Description:
The chain is α+β, with helices and mostly antiparallel strands. It has helices spanning 36-44, 92-100, 104-114, 129-142, 159-165, 173-179, 204-213, 314-320; strands at 2-9, 14-21, 26-29, 51-56, 59-63, 68-69, 77-80, 147-150, 182-187, 190-195, 215-221, 224-226, 231-235, 241-245, 255-261, 266-268, 279-291, 294-300, 308-312, 327-332, 337-341, 344-345. The strands form 6 sheets. A 5-stranded antiparallel sheet has the order 2-1-4-5-6, with helices on one face. Strand 9 and strand 10 form a beta hairpin. Helix 2 (92-100) crosses helix 3 and helix 3 packs antiparallel against helix 4 (129-142). The radius of gyration is 22 Å and the shape is globular. Residues 343-347 have low confidence and may be disordered.
Amino acid sequence: MIALDLEMRLARFPLRVAARLGAGVTAVMGPSGAGKTSLLDAIAGVRSISWGRIAVDDDVLVDTAASRSLPPQRRRVGYVPQDAGLFPHLSARDNVLFGARGRAAEAAHAIDALEIGHLLHRHPASLSGGEKQRVALARALATRPRLLLFDEPLAALDVSLRERLVPYLTHNVGEAVALAGEVLLLEEGRVEALGPPLGLLATPALSREARSGIDNLFAGRIAAHDPVGGVTRVPLAGGLVVSVPLCADLPVETPVTVAIRAEDVLVSTEPVRALSARNVYEAVVRGIETAPGEAALRCLVGPDLPEWLARLTPAAVADLGLAAGSRVWLAVKSHSVRIAAAGRPVP
């Protein structure tokens, strides 16, 4: 458990957080500039607070009233900042060994998990953004910390590696809501909400962040497993059925959260036939939101379902002649669907 009661002075407003976070995964969400990174910096010990207290279980990390502040290396907190924070004068191997404090076995395990064996002789200046993040993640895991802090650690990772790591880490709103046990929502330096992810979906600030992340989030229940076909069927509220990768370890009737990335939703203006995707739904375009280089379609699949979001290029919207009221078919591969049960990710 993490107990927070602190204030920090930021450029535009003070960051004021009073919250108790339980065990498991907590997603810190909020608009850009809300104070998320500053909060992680304070917990990790790389930035001082104005006043207050931070404790992990019974161990007090900071207590300004008692003039107590543990240095970062004594907090047993693994932290991966957005810029990776690697030591430029050390090789990738030595960066990981530094995190492991020389324990070769711990370093080797982290190196294998992040698949960075071929990078070990190189220095940070010669690494790409994704390679730096992988080394930084390995260094954090090698510390065997009691608490892991990640500031968007998956942004620069390749898709295949991201899919293997995402059961353990969260990045955007869809993944956070599907995988986290609770969400701490910040808005202009204050706690807007704290609670179970699905219970916060109606919170305006989370809705705006979800829209910017462009993810589709639904509640459902396990209906049946098809080991031969390799899928599990999940009916959603409103009657729509989604096929997901087989998760036979979850009993029938288990409540789950379904997350589908908007970029994984294919759009057709004609009925879809002879397609490998297991999930195909007829829908109506309710609106189109555009930004430089991309467009988001809001589609109504059923009267009792939330709108689906699909991300396309403006060129695709123009070529398909899409507009509000257009009839479309949405297609999603089963392996593009991610689910979680009671805050526990399903591989």
